[in-house]
Amino acid sequence: MDDELAISVRGLRKAYGDNVAVAGVDLDVRRGEVFALLGPNGAGKTTTVEILEGYRRRDAGEVRVLGSDPASPAPDWRSRVGIVLQGTGEFDELTVAEVVRHFAGFYPDADDPEKVIERVGLGDKRRARTHSLSGGQKRRLDVALGIIGRPELLFLDEPTTGFDPEARRDFWELIRDLAAAGTTILLTTHYLDEAEALADRVGVIAGGQVVEVAAPDQLGNRQAALATVSWRTPEGALESAQSATPTALVAELAARFGGEVPGLTVTRPTLEDVYLTMIGHR
Ligand code: ATP
């Protein structure tokens, strides 16, 4: 398989009894890419990701992650992959710094624990016992444990669930830094703004299959969609028109109004619009 690919999946299948969770997934994630998996509840995202992480057996299909089959990986494979797990509560009595140091000990080339704690925004909590952290702070600690081994590939399953808006923005910055340093990132999310802000490419999964893979601004042929131009008439009524050439329409309106067009907006379908159409059609 291609060395340019961090992840390559062909014909992946997994059923739980009669329930087919993954029904023939094909997926490529390039090295250095941030790839977001989107899909409704029960679409098969977590099952797919757990197979890629080596935590779940597949029924069929070919899977390569950093050149290994996760079901029988090369000896150093696990230390090259970072996984952000939901905290186990196992280390409740330890402080943040102790837990991060403890995990650093598992890796041959771990990052500096103090630096990582700062990076995830827990600098002022380094001496706090982990049971005293808030939900969002615990999630940051999970992220710290996922990146302490300097992974080449990082799996993030719904990483910002429970974060306040500021923490989300900080987290996005962290992901951008990691990506800029060359880390490949596969994230699942239910937040379309998160996929749009972070992902080079988005894969939409529904019913256990990949429906589409595209850059966020290309998904569902979004760029080619008609723009909606809205404005107010001199009487104050709202008018709108769909146009493939909104610039020309705005120029025409400007001429008609002799300058500023009242209440002018030009919009195209959002990622959420195309996503909902995509999964709603199934
Ligand atoms: P969500 O967005 O809700 O996390 P998901 O896309 O991650 O959903 P999966 O968790 O992969 O979806 O679930 C896919 C299907 O497989 C669902 O129908 C689910 O009920 C089923 N499933 C998942 N895990 C198991 C399991 N351990 N045993 C039996 N069925 C399972």
Determine and state the CATH class of the largest domain. Alpha Beta
Q: State the domain count.
A: 2
CATH topology of the largest domain: Rossmann fold
Helix percentage range: 25-40%
Outline the low-pLDDT stretches. none
Mean pLDDT over the residues:
92
What is the CATH homologous superfamily assignment of the largest domain? P-loop containing nucleotide triphosphate hydrolases
The number of distinct helices, counting runs of at least 4 residues, comes to 9
Could you give the distance between the termini? 32 Å
Rounded to the nearest angstrom, the radius of gyration is 23 Å
What is the beta-strand fraction? 25-35%
Order of helices and strands: EEEHEHEHHHEHEHEEEEHEH
